[in-house]
Design goal:
68% helix, 162 residues, single chain, mainly alpha
Length: 162
């Protein structure tokens, strides 16, 4: 019984950590060892490296290993869920540069009122980069949108929210 509970707890922690890969890979030895590698295996190895050695906790406490003491914990689960459930509507709205679904996405990202017109125009103008094919996944759309926003000097501040 105890071994099953321990196994379930360990698996749950692994999933929780791998689900938040952007924050996991931000600091600690794991992020340095697997820097730039993409996919589930490098993420799991980075999480495992940080978790088993305790270096990420030490790094956050001491401000070493690429960690910051005043860092912010971010989660994009709301945005991922929204995009997963509304991708067709968001795609339609991006293609014309306006619409309720795109307005909702802008709100989730935290786009300020004075930047919304530029955000809408940018998603329309960069539509082919953001949604390069009809079989693109929600996570890929968000990653592309993040890159497009990062390339725009006025909208770059919002890329960190994706």
């Amino acid at each position: 019984m105890k071994s099953k509970l321990f196994l379930a707890l360990g698996f749950g922690l692994l999933l929780a950590n791998s689900a938040s890969a952007d924050s996991v890979g931000a600091c600690g030895w794991g992020s340095k060892l697997f820097d730039g590698q993409k996919g589930i295996i490098p993420q799991i190895l980075a999480v495992t490296t940080n978790g088993t050695s305790g270096n990420q906790t030490f790094g956050i406490t001491s401000g070493t290993s690429g960690c910051e003491q005043n860092g912010v914990v971010n989660s994009n689960w709301k945005m991922s869920m929204y995009m997963g459930d509304n991708m067709n509507k968001v795609a339609r709205d991006m293609s014309v540069g306006r619409g309720e679904a795109l307005e909702s996405l802008a709100s989730l990202i935290g786009v300020e009122q004075n930047d919304k017109a530029l955000f809408f125009a940018t998603t329309k103008n960069e539509f082919a980069k953001i949604l390069p094919s009809s079989d693109v996944k929600a996570g890929e759309v968000l990653a592309s949108l993040k890159a497009v926003l990062a390339d725009n000097s006025q909208l770059a501040k919002y890329s960190a929210n994706i």
